[in-house]
């Protein structure tokens, strides 16, 4: 019978002991430890459990150690593993795109609710493609367009659309600038809305995310205003504009929509009970799309 590494006097680490050691030495939570180990060892969730007693090879131990060092340095899990699930769909993410948040699923639900059969939707500042791809995946009848200023983001979004086999038209555009006089039934956006000096920009995952996707380098309302400004030229009669915003911006966004003649202006709360999305319908007085 062969002797185990421990009997030989060598120190051996298994996937199981690695989990417990990392949990005791760092503040990384159990779920994240598992996700990183699955990634480092190329194991599924089930394999990680069934192989928890197998000793790691030196190469595997080094790979595990490298990934945990990146996490300890603050790098987001989603960037380390290159993936984040949104609306049930795993999406590829890199530091060129914002990491999709569960809060934004509210925006998808509202967009789906407002989108008529065979309707058209425009996702402004699509990043990883999360909103556009989630809508197109749920509604094969929809005509989905997504734009972003960043060619790196568009490459990722295109790959994600291909991976989930959905049809989305991608356009490189600085907000509405590359669109002619097209009209959409729904315009949805999760724009950069964090004010320049907000403390959150210096904390957690946000430190690693593309700054232009997070802040307008001003009061946080610049992009929300720009999107509302152009909506009259790009919303079909009765069309909805839906925008995600910061935890304390709902009343400002309602005001900016009301000031531009939108009807049925209201906000919706996310799962944490925070007003997270505000929207309104274009009124026939300002609506200019035919
Ligand atoms: N929801 C992100 C956050 O607060 C910000 C996203 C954005 O600016 N659009 O972490």
Automatic annotation (TrEMBL):
Gene3D superfamilies: DNA helicase RuvA subunit, C-terminal domain, Vaccinia Virus protein VP39
Domain Methyltransferase small: from-to ranges: 104-198
Boundaries of every Release factor glutamine methyltransferase N-terminal domain copy: 28-82
Single GO molecular function: peptide chain release factor N(5)-glutamine methyltransferase activity
InterPro entries in the cross-refs: DNA_methylase_N6_adenine_CS, HemK-like, N5-glutamine_MTase, PrmC_N, RF_methyltr_PrmC, SAM-dependent_MTases_sf, Small_mtfrase_dom
Reactions catalysed: L-glutaminyl-[peptide chain release factor] + S-adenosyl-L-methionine = N(5)-methyl-L-glutaminyl-[peptide chain release factor] + S-adenosyl-L-homocysteine + H(+)
E.C. no: 2.1.1.297
Protein name, UniProt field: Release factor glutamine methyltransferase
Organism: Keguizhuia sedimenti
């Amino acid at each position: 019978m062969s002797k185990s590494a421990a009997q030989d006097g060598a120190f051996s680490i298994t996937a199981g002991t690695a989990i417990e050691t990392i949990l005791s030495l760092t503040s990384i939570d159990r779920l994240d430890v598992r996700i990183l180990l699955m990634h480092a060892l190329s194991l599924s969730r089930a394999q990680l459990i069934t192989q928890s007693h197998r000793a790691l090879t030196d190469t595997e131990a080094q790979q595990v150690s490298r990934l945990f060092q990146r996490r300890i340095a603050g790098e987001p899990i989603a960037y380390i593993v290159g993936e984040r699930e949104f609306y049930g769909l795993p999406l590829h993410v890199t530091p060129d795109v914002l990491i999709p948040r569960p809060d934004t699923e509210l925006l998808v639900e509202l967009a789906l609710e407002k989108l008529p059969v065979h309707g058209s939707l425009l996702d402004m500042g699509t990043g990883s493609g999360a909103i556009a791809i989630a809508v197109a995946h749920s509604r094969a009848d929809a005509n989905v367009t997504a734009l972003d200023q960043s060619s790196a983001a568009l490459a990722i979004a295109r790959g994600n659309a291909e991976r989930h086999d959905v049809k989305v038209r991608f356009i490189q555009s600085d907000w509405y600038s590359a669109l002619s006089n097209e009209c959409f039934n729904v315009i949805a956006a999760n724009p950069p809305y964090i004010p320049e000096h907000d403390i959150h920009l210096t904390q957690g995952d946000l430190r690693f995310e593309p700054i232009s996707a997070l802040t307008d380098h001003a009061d946080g309302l610049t992009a929300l205003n720009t999107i509302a400004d152009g909506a009259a030229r790009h919303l079909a009669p009765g069309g909805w504009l839906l925008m995600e915003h910061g935890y304390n911006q709902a009343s400002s966004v309602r005001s900016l929509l009301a000031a531009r003649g939108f009807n049925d202006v209201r906000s919706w709360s996310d799962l944490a009970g925070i007003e997270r999305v505000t929207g309104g319908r274009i009124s026939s007085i300002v609506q200019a799309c035919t």
